[in-house]
Protein 1
Amino acid sequence: MTSDRVLERVLDATQSTFNSVLDEYRPRLQVREIGRVKSVGEGIASVSGLPNLKINELLQFPGNLFGIAFNLDPDEIGVILLGDSDRLEAGDEVYRTGNELKVPVGESLLGRAIDATGRSLDRGEPIQVEERRSIEREAPAIMDRAPVTVPLQTGLKVVDALIPVGRGQRELIVGDRQTGKTAIALDTIVNQRDKNAICIYCAIAQRNSAVAKAISTLRESGAMDYTIAVVAGGEDPPGLQYITPYAATTMGEYFMERGHDVLVVYDDLTRHAWAYRELSLLLRRPPGREAYPGDIFYIHSRMLERSTHLRDELGGGSLTALPIVETQAQNISAYIPTNLISITDGQIYLSPDLFQKAVLPAVDVGKSVSRVGGKTQIAAYSHVSGDLRLSYSQFQEVEVFARFGTQLDEDTRQTLQRGRRVREILKQPESQPIPVAEQIAVLMAANEGIFDDIPLDRIEDAENAVRERTIDRHPDLCDRIENSEKLSDDDRQSLVEVAGDAIAPFLDDNEVENSADND
Ligand SMILES: Nc1ncnc2c1ncn2[C@@H]1O[C@H](COP(=O)(O)OP(=O)(O)OP(=O)(O)O)[C@@H](O)[C@H]1O
């Protein structure tokens, strides 16, 4: 073979190898849409150059900072930032992620304090993410919902007897600052121990000390075992505060869809509305009443609509919402409180006047209502709630006149005597939930006038004696009450007799006839 021929064959072979390599070559291309930061403000940024961006899409900024596309105008995009924006500058690059914000969900979150994006706030191990879900999800359809039939016991006599809450209900806790709103919600969480419920405490822009206190109360009472604390601090960017309750709802839905009963406390939605107003004003959305944007009702209604009781075919789980709203100077007709009152299925109103008089929990029974819970109440409450409500409201009316020092007839004197004792009995210290059977025993005794002759300062001891004696003497009856069985006349008679025995020592060593004068 001539050298020319050899060269020709080598070239042919090289050509075919080259062609086959070229055929197999797949360049690794990554397409990223990159925009630019136009300007940065307090918790927001304005971005340009991302024409295909979708609303609510997550954007990535330098320094692992994320934001959500909020305003899509033709020439610029308004973004709410979810982290510290100190180092962000005009001209920085912005990347699309193609996704909405998704938060971790799952059992690994139980017992942890986290922020809305799943970052650990309790200096524990990093969160093990099993699954992520979008923070904005559609509420269950009407056909997927079942009626609310099971009670959610708060362990508070005044709430369980007079303003009962059902699993899947939305009950607003409303009141001025420092009236014990958080305390009621935390007591309810503490009372879910051994009741197979999952709880989520969602703190929005609360003082750090208040959040730390709430979490330590839950830890001390063992409630963190079944609770997740989702927290946005007061100094966190408004964007993070805004998304926190949606993230908490998504975390709750995960458990609801697995058939659990879930309780979510939103503490509080006044501050959530403030965060949204701040963002809207910074992004130049048109302000409306009290400078809130036009969709302020919708941000709360679409979130609370996600609370429900699912049909058995869908697992039968439930998500109960206890949103908290703060009023200024007892003005419940302000914009945000009225919105929330109309969205929810009732409200527990806390009165600063009662708080000052040390009537705690400071629940104003007259201004509180539960539109759903009554149908779910444990059967035994039907023997006590009606009479209790009547005698208490009569007392409240009469008490106003009695202050003028008028001469009182015997009936009025008795109404006052009973009412003062009922009020004393409805008092309850924090973090000390009372089981249903003991509540029934005490409230039935109060209705029957068993406490009428006991001086007010001894009522608490007498009440404790009645509770102890009832559990001791009638454990079977207590079990039946807990199982929502109806009480027979004999059962009621036995409860009243036991209460009569239990309070005897409190009558003996006191001048009975003077008790009314001591009131
Ligand atoms: N039942 C109770 N018995 C005794 N103290 C109580 C009771 N309920 C609340 N308190 C006390 O009242 C104070 C205010 O309670 P809490 O923080 O729950 O009120 P709040 O309305 O949530 O306050 P804020 O407006 O700051 O959120 C706390 O010091 C709490 O310990």
Protein 2
Amino acid sequence: MTAAASPRPQTPRAMVQVDKLWSVFGEGDNAFAVHQDLDLTVYQGDMLSIVGGSGTGKTVLLRQILGLLQPGRGTVTTLGRPAAELCTEGAAARVGMLFQHGALYSAFNVLENIGFALRELGTLPAAMVDEAAMVKLRMVGLKPEHATRMPADLSGGMVKRVALARALIMDPPLLLLDEPTAGLDPTSSDEFCALLRELRAELGLTVVMVTHDLDTLFALSSRVAVLAEKRVLVTGTPQEVAQFPHPFITTFFQGERGRRAMAPAPQGGH
Ligand SMILES: Nc1ncnc2c1ncn2[C@@H]1O[C@H](COP(=O)(O)OP(=O)(O)OP(=O)(O)O)[C@@H](O)[C@H]1O
């Protein structure tokens, strides 16, 4: 019997590949580029945080990955296909998106909000859509009695959970989060981070997240990409990126909040 060849180390699969991207708004003399020759690769299993100053194009980059915007130049490949193709074929099945102001549909109850994309697809009877939505409702830590509540009667943390359940309704392998903890108090924010961590591990998700919040960044990120000067300036672990010499990074990571977020957790706590 011959010995089995030792397995070759595998390069992780690229879930998102952005090459030399230009994102341009306006026409003629009023045209301006938000991204110029921006490169970014998101690997399977990544929990990648995108940070950068206000207006550096973080949300625009998420919209490019989702295929909602057209590259001026360059290419965006999401799950092996041009991102633009996602929009034409039930994007929710492949990429879940939690928008920053991810308002729920106010006229629909919680369960109807969660099942929305599946219902729109029209391939399953209503009872099965509700059943699938109920599974997701439990998955995000809500209780069956929350199913019939209206969005106006939910706390901020519950709204985020419903929006997350809605983003996961079709079991997408890739999840995009725009400021997932914005507007939450510190306890709700910590709880939401813990939920995201659990779901990522349980479902094997790849996650790309925009955040300004250092606690969220350190709680969740395996890698960080910094947007500055219209491109991705540096990527690496949070600790690696924090050492990169650049004014934005110094202010962002070395301020008081940054130092606190990077400090080792106190021992002997619970
Ligand atoms: N549809 C659009 N038309 C014109 N300009 C746009 C459009 N969308 C975004 N922009 C511009 O692109 C730039 C980047 O916007 P974006 O929302 O991506 O910034 P951001 O990095 O997410 O900022 P913030 O941290 O403040 O949310 C801004 O100058 C914005 O005004």
